[in-house]
Structure formats: C-alpha cells, structure tokens
Amino acid sequence: MSGIAIGVVGCAGRMGRMLLATIAATDGCRIAGGTEARGNEAVGQDLGRFAGTDPLGIPVGDDPAALFDAADVVIDFTRPKATVAHARLAAARGKALVTGTTGLDAGDEAMLRETARGVPMVYAPNMSLGVTLLMHLVEQAAARLGPDYDIEIVEMHHRHKIDAPSGTALGLARAAARGRDVSLDDVADRGRDGDTGPRRRGAIGMAALRGGDVVGDHQVIFAADGERLELGHRASSRETFARGAVAAAIWVAGRTPGLYDMRDVLDLR
Ligand SMILES: NC(=O)C1=CN([C@@H]2O[C@H](COP(=O)(O)OP(=O)(O)OC[C@H]3O[C@@H](n4cnc5c(N)ncnc54)[C@H](OP(=O)(O)O)[C@@H]3O)[C@@H](O)[C@H]2O)C=CC1
Ligand SMILES: O=C(O)C1=N[C@H](C(=O)O)C[C@H](O)C1
To answer: EC number(s) for this protein (predicted)?
Structure first.
C-alpha cells in the first residue's frame, strides 16, 4: 500500500470521524488505524463505520503504541491528558504527531515542547487556513492600534464543548498580546461577573458562549472612542479543520524534530 500512513487516536469522536473520512478521500495518504480508550464501545468495530466508508477490515484498537508502530504520523484530537500521553508515545516510537486538542495547561504545553525535541509535531488550536490568517491579521492590528483600542474576543461553540475559552480564542488573544509586545498572562481578562469595576486599560477580554450545534465562531473587537474594528471567522463544517490537520500530517512526515504550528504548514511566517 502506498502513501503516508496516518493513524487517528480518538477516532470515534466528532473530529476523529471527520479525520478518517478526510484521510480516505485525500490522495497521498491512507488510514493506518484508529484507537479509542479501553472500554469505549467503538473498540473492536470496523473503522469504516466511523469513516463513513465501506468496511475497511481494520478494527478500532485500544493500544496506541501499536498504532504508532503501524503509522508514519498520528493525528490526535482527544483530551489534554490523552494528548500528553500520545506525545510521549510519539517520542518513544520515533513518529510524528499532529494535535489539535485544546484546553492544555502550561505544564501540558511544556511537555509537548519537551517531547518535540526528538520528533516533529504540529500543535495548533485551529487547523483552518482562515483562522491561521486571522491570527496574523489580529497581531498586525494590535500592533498598529495601540492601547486606546480595547480588545475583546467573543467565541461561540456547540453545547458539547468542554473547555473555555476556546483554544482559538486564547490563540487570538496571544496574537494580540504579541502585537502589543506584552505577556497575555499580565493582561488577560477571562470572563467578567458581578462588581467588576471599570475595564482595565490594556486588558484583553474573552467571553465564551455555548449552544446548539455551532461549529466555531470567533470575533475580535478593537473598540475605541468613536470607532470599532471587528475581525472574525465562522466555521460551518468540521471538514475545514480535518483538511488542515491532514495537510499538516502530510507536511510533517519526515521533517526535522521540533514543535511547529499551522503558520509553518501554510507557509505564513
Ligand atoms: N485544532 C482544531 O482545529 C480543532 C480542535 N478541536 C479540539 O479537539 C478536541 C476534540 O474535539 P471533539 O472531536 O469535538 O471531541 P470528542 O469528545 O467528540 O472526541 C474526542 C475523542 O477522543 C476520545 N478519547 C479520550 N481519551 C482518549 C484516549 N486516551 N485514547 C483515545 N481516545 C480518547 C474520546 O472518547 P470518550 O468520549 O470516551 O472520552 C472521544 O471519542 C477538543 O479539544 C477540541 O477543542 C476541535 C475541532 C477543531
Ligand atoms: O471544540 C471544538 O469544537 C473546537 N475547538 C477548537 C477551539 O477550542 O478553538 C477549534 C474550533 O473552534 C472547534
């Protein structure tokens, strides 16, 4: 069989299924296998059921080490602790990893950086071309507009999302902080409630809405006296994230070890 062999951990999840379907439909790559955690009801079922294809003759596994051995690259959209375990496995088995999992804390991200010293990894909170470009535009706007323009980021996602603010909102906030040459930790305002007092000058605010089946909306507002600049993005299908992740997997196979993001994959640096 030819093409880059791509494994998918968390293959029965919303993104996992979309990734399988996208790999099956993309030239130059093939499905190496998929896993779910032990005890998940998908384990043992044919992967084709989750890819939306004919039976593939490959059962969903629960042994990620075996998947890393069978694959050239593994794609992970799971949960932060699972992602860290998968990054350790990638390093131990010498295989590339693409992860889009959000909600990682500073310690989890430090572990990704550490494991990426030995193997190539792509880590991005949003794999779409549109959001990758939006981050670039937000950095430029923040650099040009200065602290008279209050930055507020509003995101909305489906009712099943478990982390807030979204990884993309945090990425946009980081881009704005970079543009202003400040640390996000010093200026982030992650949700207001009660007797908040007036807005802090230079703060970067974030607000998270949850409801229905919204795939992912992000809006960055620069509000000044007399005018307001708004930059935004709406995803209407998870396919846009899956296409980006599969492009990242093909791009990262055989690269020099290191932690990359979608700006590298899309050549937007
Ligand atoms: N970067 C990007 O472009 C995007 C990022 N995301 C992020 O991707 C992540 C997943 O989102 P989504 O697909 O909607 O979530 P889902 O809950 O639908 O899918 C996650 C899947 O991973 C499984 N899983 C959990 N632990 C393990 C493990 N140890 N081994 C194997 N599988 C495991 C879950 O199983 P179980 O249900 O049993 O826990 C579930 O099937 C989130 O962090 C989300 O924010 C989403 C879309 C785009
Ligand atoms: O959980 C989701 O669905 C999404 N998560 C990512 C995030 O947290 O930014 C990306 C996308 O908006 C969908």
So the answer is: 1.17.1.8
